[in-house]
Amino acid sequence: MDHAKHIMPGLLALVAIAGCNSAPAGLPTTPPTQVALVADTGFRQAGAVESSPDGTTFYAAALDEEGRPTVFAIDVASGDVSPLHSGEPFLYPADLAMACDGSRLFVADTGIGVPDSEIGDPETPLGEAAGVHVVSTVDGSISRLESTGISRAAGVVVSHDCESLYISGWTELQVPAVFRMPIDGGTATVLYEGSPLRSPTGIHVDASDVAWVMDHEARNESGEGLLFAITADGEISEVLGGLEMGRHGGVSLTPGGTTAVIPTFNQATRETELVTANTETGEVEIIPVPGLAHATGVAAARNAPVMVVAGEQSIHIATFE
């Protein structure tokens, strides 16, 4: 793939804030070099994705053939797609996060009727909130993660030390925020709330507990769609702006950390691109992915040199030289 490179001065300012983003030795820290199709049938309107720790199974939040919200499991080697859990209690599963041992998926469910969005019935703008579900990767059994302090969950990720969940969404007063809570549920602590966050979505947390948060509606001089970095102390900084996200604004660091990867759609060229940003040098690369349409989610395997990238009708694997 051809890479276009430039430096974002604003990103350089984050180096001192973010610190070390390292992960287990041997995993890639540079942008992916190949993107290949894994599956494009058996589901529709795919959004968030996740990978098993070993990279052999991908998971996607999408609709089944009957239009029910579903979490699918995709075997990477064969491309076989199978529903892990369909229908109730899912309302609008917006993001996925994998437990470190691969035994369960955390599903951030935004619910329906979110204010200022296209989800749900406009006649009932407050709609119905959902929360975070826990789905067994073994048998698809599902339970509700008990939590307090969060009204709606839009993004979820497991911390680097495997002990916490970071969740993007809204407070009980409908203020956009990023939270941290114990992985088995409990009281959510606000890491950051309010402006400049407007509609936070995809989230990734690195080895330094820096939360990298996508926001569909936040805007700077580069345009709408921002990536923020929020430190463990609650300090927020802009990273990149003008990011034309799909329905789900996905972000993930590469398996070894350091490089953020964001699927976007370039309106000028009508091409899907992976925007990659090195959090230590400030270097940004634009990687065209012509075989992927309507980009949505992205996630790195925790212990393997692969990433999963989604379009609304296709699931892809990103690999590294």
Describe this structure in words.
2% of the residues lie in helices and 48% in strands. It has helices at 9-12, 15-18; strands at 4-7, 34-39, 49-51, 57-63, 69-75, 81-86, 93-98, 104-109, 131-136, 142-144, 147-148, 152-158, 164-170, 176-182, 186-187, 189-193, 200-205, 211-220, 223-230, 236-240, 252-253, 259-266, 271-278, 283-288, 295-300, 306-311, 314-319. The longest helix has 4 residues, at 9-12. With 321 residues, the chain is mainly β. It is globular and about 45 Å long. The termini are close together. The protein has a five-stranded antiparallel beta sheet with strand order 1-24-23-22-21. Strand 18 (211-220) and strand 19 (223-230) form a beta hairpin. The chain has two helices and 27 strands.
Strand content: over 45%
Which secondary-structure class do the elements indicate?
A: mainly beta
Distance between the termini: 12 Å
Poorly predicted regions: 2-20, 114-126
Structure described in brief:
2% of the residues lie in helices and 48% in strands. The protein contains 2 helices and 27 strands. A 5-stranded antiparallel β-sheet has the order 1-24-23-22-21.
Chart the SSEs and their pairings:
Layout: E1 4-7, H1 9-12, H2 15-18, E2 34-39, E3 49-51, E4 57-63, E5 69-75, E6 81-86, E7 93-98, E8 104-109, E9 131-136, E10 142-144, E11 147-148, E12 152-158, E13 164-170, E14 176-182, E15 186-187, E16 189-193, E17 200-205, E18 211-220, E19 223-230, E20 236-240, E21 252-253, E22 259-266, E23 271-278, E24 283-288, E25 295-300, E26 306-311, E27 314-319
Parallel strand pairs: 11-15
Antiparallel strand pairs: 1-24, 2-27, 3-4, 4-5, 5-6, 7-8, 8-9, 9-10, 12-13, 13-14, 14-16, 17-18, 18-19, 19-20, 21-22, 22-23, 23-24, 25-26, 26-27
